[in-house]
Amino acid sequence: MRVLVLGGTGFLGRHVVAALAARDHVVFVGTRRPQRGADHDDDGPLRRLTRFEWLTEPARWEPLLEGVDAVVNCVGILRERGAATYERVHLVAPAALAAACKAARVRRLIHVSALGLRRNARSRFVLSKLRGEMALSRSGMPCTIVRPSLLEGNGGFGSDWLRRMARWPVHWIPEDAVGRIAIVDVRDVADAIAVLCVRPPPQRLHTVELGGRSAFTLAEYLAMLRQLEGRRRAPLVRLPPQAARLLAHACDLLHVTPFSYGHLELLRRDNVPAMNNLPRLLERPLHGLASALVTPSGWDTVRHAAWRIG
Q1: Do 79 and 252 form a contact (C-beta atoms < 8 A)?
Q2: What pTM, to 2 d.p., does this model score?
C-alpha cells in the first residue's frame, strides 16, 4: 500500500512512518520542510512539501494525492504562527483534503484528532479541532477519526517537558486540573494507525478512541514518573484557577513550554476513551506507562504491571 503521512516528521507522524515502513508499505512523508533531516537514500521515505495554510482548496491537494492509496493526517498546531492559524490547519485544510480524497478515490483517510473536545470549550485550539471533525463528517468522505489520549514517548515536546517537570522539587498543579488522563505510548498509537490503514474502509465516518490501561490525574502521573526514577513524591502546590489561567495565557503569548490554555481546558475534565479500541487493534501488551495498572495496594504495583490480552 502507498500511504501519505501528513506531518510525517512530527512526534506521532514519524512513529507512524516507521510503523508503516516496518510493514513494507511505501510511505510518502508530507512535511513543511522536506529537506530538513532528509537522508536522500533510495530506501528512505519520499518527501512532499505540505503546508496546510496553503492547502485550503481541494484542487491544491491533487498533486500530493497522486499515486496514493491511503492518507494519515497527523498535522496539528499547538499555537498559531502567521498564516498557520487554527482555522486553516485544523478545519479548512482537512476539509479540503477530505473532498480531494473523495474525488481522487483515495481508499482510506485517517485523521488524528484528540480526546476531550467539547462545544462549550473557551479555547480556540479545542474548538478548532472539534470543528475540523465536524467538517469531515459533512465531507462525504468515509474517514476514520483517531482520538488518542496524552501521548508518551521520547522526543515529544510535551512528553519530554512533563518528565523534566516531574524532577522538580515541587509540583505546581492547577487546582482545577482534576481530569484523568489515559496515558498512551506514541508507538502503540502509531501501530494502531498502521493497522487501521489496511482495514476495510468504513462506510461512513468512524471514530476510534485510544488510551492506556489506567487513567491518572496530572498530579498522579508526575508522581508515577518520579517513582519510576526512584524518587520520593514531591510536595504538591495547587494553583488557584485564575492564576493557572494567567499562566496558561502567558505561555501562549510567549510561546514557551507546551502548557497552553487549550491544555488547561482539557485537564479540567477526563481525557479517557469512552471505548478503548487499542486492545482489539494491537492484541499485544502495551508499551511504557500505558500498561500500568493502579490498584488499591498502591504505586509499587505500577512498575511490575503488564497488560496481556485474553
Answers
A1: yes
A2: 0.90
